[in-house]
Design goal:
Order of helices and strands: HEHEHEHEHEHEHEH
Number of strands: 7
Distance between the termini: 31 Å
Largest sheet: 5 strands, parallel
Length: about 180
């Protein structure tokens, strides 16, 4: 279920991202972090042909206040990703999934990362192992957050969302980058 941020309406770019990953036979319900832009987000998504059936009035704040169940995805920063990779040493199936576009990946990526562009993830999630931890990473955190949600929806149990700058922060902090496809 796509989530529209409570602090900003759905942008044209976000509408395109949602449209790339929502199966055509799924109805959408817009859920925001709190009361705010749900209606506007629903209208904008519907304007590009997405089947929006409504929105959650009051957002996740209202959902939680009623004691309804919530699934969470752990969010880490690039520094913590590095620590976990160092601690794992490749022994326990810790996989970095880079969901950026091919040109971004070629410009530089985390060594050993697997590349599946965000828009291809619904069709290619079967290529990923289910017995390890998958850390979704992009350049800023939006695509990786959506990718982590998609993986969770597909039944992947150990999924992490790498936020706070993604691959760019990884590189700026002096960690190795591999260039090329």
């Amino acid at each position: 279920m796509p989530t529209a941020g409570a602090t900003s309406p759905v942008t044209g770019q976000r509408k395109t991202k949602v449209g790339r990953v929502v199966p055509g036979d799924r109805d959408l319900i817009v859920v925001a972090a709190s009361d705010g832009y749900e209606l506007e987000a629903a209208e904008q998504l519907a304007s590009v042909g997405l089947p929006v059936r409504g929105y959650l009035h009051g957002g996740m704040t209202a959902w939680r206040s009623e004691g309804r169940p919530v699934k969470r995805i752990e969010m880490i920063d690039p520094g913590e990703l590095a620590e976990r990779l160092d601690g794992d040493g490749g022994k326990n199936g810790f996989l970095v999934l880079d969901v950026r576009d091919a040109d971004e990946f070629a410009e530089g990526h985390i060594p050993g990362s697997v590349h599946i562009p965000f828009g291809d993830l619904p069709q290619r999630s079967g290529e990923l192992p289910r017995d390890g931890t998958i850390s979704a990473v992009c350049s800023g955190g939006k695509r990786s957050g959506l990718a982590a949600s998609l993986l969770q929806r597909e039944g992947f149990e150990r999924v992490l969302h790498v936020a706070d700058g993604g691959v760019g922060t990884w590189e700026r902090e002096g960690r190795p980058i591999v260039k090329g496809p």
